[in-house]
Each structure stands twice: as structure tokens, then as C-alpha cells.
Amino acid sequence: MDVIMNQLTISEIMTRSPRIIRPDSSLRHVFKLMKNHNIRQLPVVDSGKLVGIITDRDLRLALNEPSMDSISWGNDSRLDRLKIEGYMTTNPKTVSPTTPIQRAAELLVVYKIGALPVVEDGMIVGIVTTTDFLNYLIKM
Predict the structure, then answer these.
(1) Residue 2 has pLDDT above 90, yes or no
(2) What's the Cα-to-Cα distance from 60 to each of 10, 15, 31, 124, rounded to whole Å?
């Protein structure tokens, strides 16, 4: 299995054309997007370039709540005014489509993160998540 893992690249397991968000998007918009599409990470893109990543953990920290389920999203207008640029991770760890999947897995473990934006020439071309790795292992 090590030989197979060393030969595979991120391009073979990544999610292509991931949903993206702009840095001036509101916390409410990001939460709804994540919830509606059952995703936990969104690359943040400005003028086509990756500028950050926002995660469900970032949203929980932003609102200082232990669980998003307990947040009253309906009536709090602050959620429309607060922009994700103040809560996203800037300069996130990234990989390229040609990065060996073993190296990407190491980055996820070492940095304790759930996703890596896949970037080529400064442009986002995909995302690889722990779920992508698990799906690959299931297929094997």
C-alpha cells in the first residue's frame, strides 16, 4: 500500500472546483452555505486568488459557542454585519495537484487541519479533505 500511496497525487483524490466564498461574505451566509451543502471548509477567494480558508471551527470560535446547533441564527443581525475576513485563516497550508497524497496526509496530521486548498499558479483548482482521503481508502 505504501508504494501505491507514494505514486498517487492529490489530483487523483481532490474535490475539483470546490465551493468558494469571498472575504466580504457575512458569517450568516457562510454558515448557511456550509449547512446547505454539508461542508466544513470553504476556500476564501478574492479576484480569483486564494486569500484564506474558513472552517466550521472558525465560525464556532467567532461566536464563542461550543456548538453551532445552539446558536440562534434567526434574529441576530450581527451575523449579517460580521464579515469572514476577520475570522478566516489567512495564508492557509496548500498543496498542488502534483503533491503526493502521502505528503498531503502528513500536512493534515501535523497541522491538525481538515482540508488543504489545492492551488496551481496562485489559483484554486480544488480542495482535499480528510473525507476525500477516507473515500479513497474505502474504494481501495
Answers:
(1) no
(2) 29, 24, 10, 25
CATH code that applies to domain 2-139: 3.10.580.10
Every domain of the chain and the residues it spans: 2-139
Three-state secondary structure of the chain: CHHHHHHCEHHHCCEECCCCECCCCEHHHHHHHHHHHCCCEEEEEECCEEEEEEEHHHHHHHHCCCCHHHCCCCCCCHHHHCEHHHCCEECCCCECCCCEHHHHHHHHHHHCCCEEEEEECCEEEEEEEHHHHHHHHHHC
At 31-63, the pLDDT tens digits run 899 999 999 999 999 988 999 999 988 888 887
